[in-house]
Amino acid sequence: MKAINLVSAGLALAMGLPTIAAAENLAPFERGLYVAPMASYVEPDSDRTLDDGLGGTLALGYRVNPGLAIELYGAFSELDAVDGDGTSSTLSGGGIAALVFVPQLGGLHLPLAIGYLNSDHQGSAGEEYKGLSFEAGLGYLLPISFGRYRFGLRADARFRHHNGQDGQRLDEEASGIQDILYNLGLQLPFGLQPPPPPPPAPEPVVVAPADSDSDGVLDRDDQCPGTTYGSRVDERGCAPPPPPPPCPQTLENVDEVELRGCAAGDVIALRGVNFDTDKAELTETSEALLSEVAQQLREHPSMQIEVAGHTDNQGRASYNLDLSERRAQTVRSYLIERGVESSRLSTRGFGETSPMTSNDDAAGRALNRRVELRILDADSAG
After folding, report:
1. DSSP 71
2. pLDDT digits (tens, 9 = 90+) for 4-59
3. What are phi and psi of 290, to 5 degrees?
4. Whole-number Å distance between alpha carbons of 328 and 336
5. What's the CATH number of domain 2-189, 2.40.160.20, 2.20.25.110, 3.40.50.150, 3.40.50.2000?
6. Which residues form the OmpA-like domain (predicted)?
7. How many CA atoms lie within 13 Å of 52's alpha carbon, on the beta-carbon side?
8. 37 beta partners
9. Class of the 250-377 domain?
10. Contact 269/250 with Cβ under 8 angstroms?
């Protein structure tokens, strides 16, 4: 009967309190010293003509690790006779207890105790009974927080056996006496919980660099703020310069001279550069045009030029070849005089070997008598 009562009490206690997931969450029992005052309800065995009674227990304990706590305890209770004849029994004593936890079951634990119990039976035949007592049961500890102070609500049900090895027994049975104890109280640790760690620093707010005109160039680098949305800009945020004009195929007038758009492989016929018949000296109008050419070459210092001379087919071919070379040399010399580095200029005479058109008429022969600028290299001409 006592075993059935104990199991029922344990099940009721376990179902009536919330389940805690892990022992490390039980702040009052994490580790360290605590005190546990508890009220007790005592149900004596049926062999004694005593009614249920009340009492109290005070324990001083230490949580050794998540699975074990050790306590020293003192207990007191008083039971009255069933028939109300004035007879009572006072139970007092103390001992040592171990609370065995299974961390995976939260606050559920098994209290096991051994102690010394004194039963003072008051009445017509007052007797005193002293001896060892043994306790075992089922308990639960519910953690509670109040600010940084964390304590626990504690409850357990225990079976207690008093073996009667000393003094006068209250009955003649060899089995001793048994009680069922229900304890409810608090478990109060010494000290406060450590303060919580400071909250993590907020993530830095990354402010995207501004691009007010949305041209793809940040304001800090934009040398032309306020460009029209969608406009094509360069790395400075400015509209790129207009493309250079195409390289001219012929140069005849001074105001036509513009080499900015020329690239390697381009050939420019200097129609404004003329020579007297069978001569290699420049005319006055030719010098004016070549002066502008020299200015353009100075503005594009990486441009490498071959000055090519050509003639028509009138006269001996060898003579025409020599004449074309001398005319090319004349143009080169003039450009050098106007500040173009000699290393950038080479010459070549083609004579009558590279006509532009037919030599059958005077107009065709006039086109074939020419000096050309052949662009060999112009990496930065534009």
Report:
1. E
2. 444 344 434 433 333 333 334 444 457 889 999 999 999 988 777 788 899 999 99
3. -65, -30
4. 13
5. 2.40.160.20
6. 262-379
7. 7
8. 58
9. alpha beta
10. yes
